Amino acid sequence: MNFVENIREGLRSITGNRLRTVLTALIIAIGITSLVGILTAIDGLQQSVDDSFAGLGANTFSIGARQEVSRRSGRVRKQDKPISYQEVNAFKQRFPLGATIAISSQVADAAQVKFGSRKSNPNMQLVGGDDSYLPVKGYSLSRGRNLNTNDLAYALNVAVIGSEVAKTLFKGKLNPINQVIRVAGVQYKIVGVLDEKGGLTGGGENRIILVPLDNARAVAGSGKMTFDITASVPNAADQDEAVGEARGVMRLVRHDPLGQPDSFDIERADELARETDNITGYLRIGGFGIGFITLLGAAIALLNIMLVSVTERTREIGIRKSLGATPKRIREQFLIEAIVICLLGGVGGIVLGLGVGNLIALLVSGGKGGFVVPWLWMGLGLLVCVSVGLFAGLYPAVRASRLDPIEALRYE
Predict the structure, then answer these.
(1) Tens digits of residue pLDDT in 316-351
(2) Which residues contact 78 (CB under 8 A, 6 or more apart)?
(3) Domain ABC3 transporter permease C-terminal spans what residues (predicted)?
(4) Are the C-beta atoms of 227 and 193 separated by less than 8 Å?
(5) I want to staple 31 with a disulfide (CB 3.0 to 4.6 A). Which of 5, 193, 294, 307 is the partner?
(6) How many Å apart are CA 220 and CA 109, to the nearest integer?
(7) Cβ partners under 8 Å of residue 409, min gap 6
(8) Which stretches of 86-204 are assigned E, i.e. beta strand?
(9) What is the pLDDT of residue 412?
(10) Is the CB of residue 400 less than 8 Å from the CB of residue 337?
């Protein structure tokens, strides 16, 4: 009996016990589905996050008032003094590195928008900004135009709306440009509509209503406003220098005493991306651990089934040994059977894992992620299948090879 004949005999044995083979392969498939599915979902989410940061650009940083919230009570534990309108303008005038600087302020994050008899949910974001806000934040226009210098100088009642606002109010049946909407009791004429934008806030980037900054200040009235600065330097290599210079200028503008910590926070887009990579790395480790535990259970089940198979085929093993089959060939036969069963289950598990993982990533990212084919995890899944087959088949194979042929022939 040569090696090729052993493979054929192993395959004949598998096809001869189809129900048992299918059930065993299904156990392996469930384990591989959990492993590949979790890792694929994490890769899909990572891709969605990377796309969001790519829209901002690696050479972007933001300056804002820091606000730390207690996770237990939800109350603010530490809050910087709000950044005022005068401070952001002073920063813009003093910053020396020729960066594109956008000034903005969020007037309301739970605003309701009305168009005729139609109303949106009270989850729209009314933001005041300048003509640099959209390009620096990575938005692109699908219709109309951006805010211009005339809109900003005269604080006109014009607005650029996000894609979700347009879909909610106009249902794709009416051109939003030059239509009049009402937000926070003020009427605005729509001059632009934004393309759909992926992000990390559950679609909040698409629920924006951008109005001229001074107009937003008038809407807020006597309410407390804090302003944010987003800067984009021309060259990513100048990022460190730009952030250091921005910290010095902002401390000067805010009159922060020497030796005291900053009364503001600077966030770099590349730092956020690295932090997200670290988080997804931990998630991958956890996902691999969960998949490993599931596969360990599948391997034990396969080991049990292979032991039963050895017992059932004791007389067959005795006949093979009496015809000249060596213990090595007997071991090979049972190992091949175990590995083939695992590979059958592994292929099915990989296909299911791809579908389940991409579906989870699509749901969590709000439909923004693309289809991910993780070749590394697929290869790892097949490697794990072979390892599980060797682990589960080795002991039964050794046990079968050590059977005494005379005793095996007597077995009933």
Answers:
(1) 777 777 777 777 777 777 777 777 878 888 888 888
(2) 66, 67, 68
(3) 290-405
(4) no
(5) 294
(6) 13
(7) 315, 318, 319, 322
(8) 100-111, 113-115, 118-119, 124-129, 141-144, 158-161, 180-183, 186-194
(9) 55
(10) no
